[in-house]
């Protein structure tokens, strides 16, 4: 691998962790493999691109899980991230953005070892 590219990737990871850390740590809600699989099963490729196609009851159930997890946390939403797999990160963001505009979604690969991750809950 190119040392210049690795340096840029490392710098980007440090920037992301710095941006989303509060009080020296990243506060995260982890998306469970079961929820990730449900979202992954709803991803549909088309000629125009890939999109999330969950039926209304499935989407509502997933959003209810997010709401339940967030209701018991006394931390502002802007200080929390959702942590999930890179392949569905953008679909999770799309699913929650109308209800939780300030809630960011990161993938595991965007984190660095320098900033501790405080897992608040798993959905």
Automatic annotation (TrEMBL):
Gene Ontology CC: one annotated term: plasma membrane
Q: Name one GO biological process term.
A: protein secretion
Q: Which Gene3D superfamilies match?
A: FHIPEP family, domain 4 (3.40.50.12790)
Instruction: List, alphabetically, the Pfam families matched.
Output: FHIPEP
Entry-linked InterPro entries: FHIPEP_4 (IPR042196), T3SS_FHIPEP (IPR001712)
Q: Which domain of life is it from?
A: Bacteria
Q: What is this protein called?
A: EscV/YscV/HrcV family type III secretion system export apparatus protein
Q: From which organism does this entry originate? A: Escherichia coli
Species classification: Bacteria, Pseudomonadati, Pseudomonadota, Gammaproteobacteria, Enterobacterales
């Amino acid at each position: 691998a190119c040392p210049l590219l690795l340096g840029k990737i490392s710098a980007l990871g440090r920037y992301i962790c710095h941006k989303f850390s509060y009080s020296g740590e990243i506060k995260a809600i982890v998306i469970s493999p079961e929820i990730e699989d449900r979202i992954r099963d709803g991803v549909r490729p088309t000629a125009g691109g890939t999109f999330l196609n969950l039926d209304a009851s499935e989407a509502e159930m997933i959003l209810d899980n997010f709401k339940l997890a967030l209701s018991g946390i006394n931390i502002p939403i802007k200080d929390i991230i959702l942590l999930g797999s890179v392949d569905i990160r953008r679909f999770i963001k799309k699913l929650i953005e109308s209800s939780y505009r300030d809630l960011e979604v990161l993938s595991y690969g965007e984190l660095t070892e320098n900033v501790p991750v405080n897992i608040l809950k798993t959905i």
